[in-house]
TrEMBL record:
ABC-2 type transporter transmembrane domain segment(s): 39-380
Lineage, top ranks: Bacteria, Pseudomonadati, Pseudomonadota, Gammaproteobacteria, Cellvibrionales
MF (Gene Ontology): ABC-type transporter activity
One of the record's GO cellular component terms: membrane
Protein name per Swiss-Prot or TrEMBL: ABC transporter permease
Membrane topology, from the record: Multi-pass membrane protein
InterPro entries, alphabetized: ABC2_TM (IPR013525)
Predominant location category: membrane
Gene source species: Microbulbifer pacificus
Segments traversing the membrane: 34-57, 189-212, 256-274, 280-306, 318-337, 367-388
Length: 400
């Protein structure tokens, strides 16, 4: 018998596998618990992301810093210059700074009694700024107040120099101007950095229940043994189960992508200077790049469930598995590690990089996408062969 690869025999094997594939698909899609888990998480995180973004913008727009200015009559110019949309300055004749900070004031600015006299004598009068460092919002409020006081101070210095015939440029050998060259896509990458990891996590969660039920679950229900005595090769059984499990995982990721794209117009991304750059072609590409990964996730989960001791053991192992990749991807994002292009050949990392680019409209190399997807599919085939060999072990049915 020839050991050469025979395309005809492969097609015959796939045709012979069709009834089993139909049976696995029906069982997977009839499992309401698994289907509900896939749909709920797929819709939950885009809604949570949209809600979080809206809440963040609303909080920033409504968050006004309350400043109590004690002794404002001694420095009326300061009280006038501090008034702005972001600062609510209230002039008080007197008051204890501790009590005022406890009474919902963010900052307390006190003008000393000798402020006017020292100001006229050019002796640098003092201002006392009281803050409550245990308040999480005090740091932002302090920076905002210091920026306005610094601008007022610079204006007074310029006026004094000009009044004495001294050019202010003599004290400023250069002037630094900051120009932001970031693009909407690069700013969008900061806001949407967690989305690729969550899309990948959706695959793991959507596949979990079906993968455990079709492997460890069937073994405990004693329905796996009758399947193994059928005139089917091991690779056909694993392939049918992989396709059924991957169909739910892929459905979850497609729902998540669709919900995210539909919610993007509602999200106030323009407040962050971000334009919606995702196109229809980008959405289709995101779905296609997740398909090989869905197959790999499904077959790996099935293999881990088959080697587990029980149904509960399989659930525990796969629950840990679905968290570990997301943690790895988040660490890579937070560390801002610049990866070489060749890293796109690795599953998970490649899909993360492609999804990140497609979400914000950056150019993604089709060659790297095809090469990385091919590597992922090759690993799927390898895992199926490993699973086929595992089905030949008698100890598989006796695991408990």
């Amino acid at each position: 018998m020839s050991n050469k690869w025979n395309p005809g025999a492969l097609l015959d094997g796939l045709a012979q596998m069709t009834p089993l594939l139909r049976k696995e698909l029906l069982e997977a899609w009839r499992d309401r618990r698994a289907l509900l888990m896939a749909i709920c998480f797929s819709l939950m995180f885009p809604a949570a992301l949209a809600g979080g973004t809206i809440f963040m913008v609303k909080k920033q727009s409504e968050d006004v810093t309350r400043v109590a200015l004690i002794g404002a009559e001694r420095a009326p110019l300061i009280g006038e210059q501090l008034q702005s949309s972001g600062l609510d300055v209230e002039s008080l004749a007197e008051g204890d700074p501790r009590d005022l900070l406890a009474a919902d004031y963010d900052l307390v600015l006190e003008v000393t009694d000798d402020f006017a006299q020292r100001y006229q004598d050019f002796r640098a009068p003092r201002l006392y700024l009281y803050v409550n460092s245990s308040d999480t919002g005090s740091g932002r409020a302090q920076r905002e107040l210091q920026e306005r006081l610094g601008a007022l101070q610079q204006m007074i210095v310029t006026q004094r120099l000009s009044a004495r015939g001294v050019a202010p440029q003599l004290l400023a050998p250069w002037r630094l101007e900051t120009r932001d060259v970031s693009t909407p896509s690069s700013r969008g990458a900061l806001i949407l950095a967690t989305v690729p990891g969550l899309l990948i996590m959706t695959l793991f969660i959507a596949c979990l229940a079906t993968a455990v039920d079709s492997s460890a679950g069937e073994r405990e229900r004693l329905s796996l043994e009758p399947l193994l005595v059928q005139p089917l090769a091991g690779w056909q059984i694993i392939t049918a189960k992989t396709l059924a499990v991957a169909s739910l995982g892929w459905l979850g990721s497609l729902l998540a992508i669709g919900a995210l794209v539909l919610l993007m117009p509602v999200m106030p991304l323009a407040e962050f200077g971000i334009q919606q750059a995702t196109t229809l072609a980008g959405v289709v590409a995101m779905g296609l790049v997740l398909l090989p990964l869905a197959l790999l996730v499904a077959v790996v989960q099935i293999l881990l469930a088959l080697r587990s001791q029980s149904f509960k053991d399989a659930q525990t192992q796969l629950s840990i598995l679905q968290i570990a990749p997301v943690v790895l991807l988040m660490v890579l994002d937070m560390a801002q590690i610049k990866l070489a292009d060749s890293w796109q050949l690795l599953p998970l990392i490649g899909q993360q990089q492609w999804l990140k680019g497609l979400l914000v409209g950056d150019w993604v190399s089709p060659l790297w996408m095809l090469a990385g997807s091919a590597v992922t599919l090759a690993l799927v085939v390898l895992a199926i062969m490993v699973g086929a060999r595992a089905l030949q072990r008698e100890s598989l049915l006796s695991a408990s």
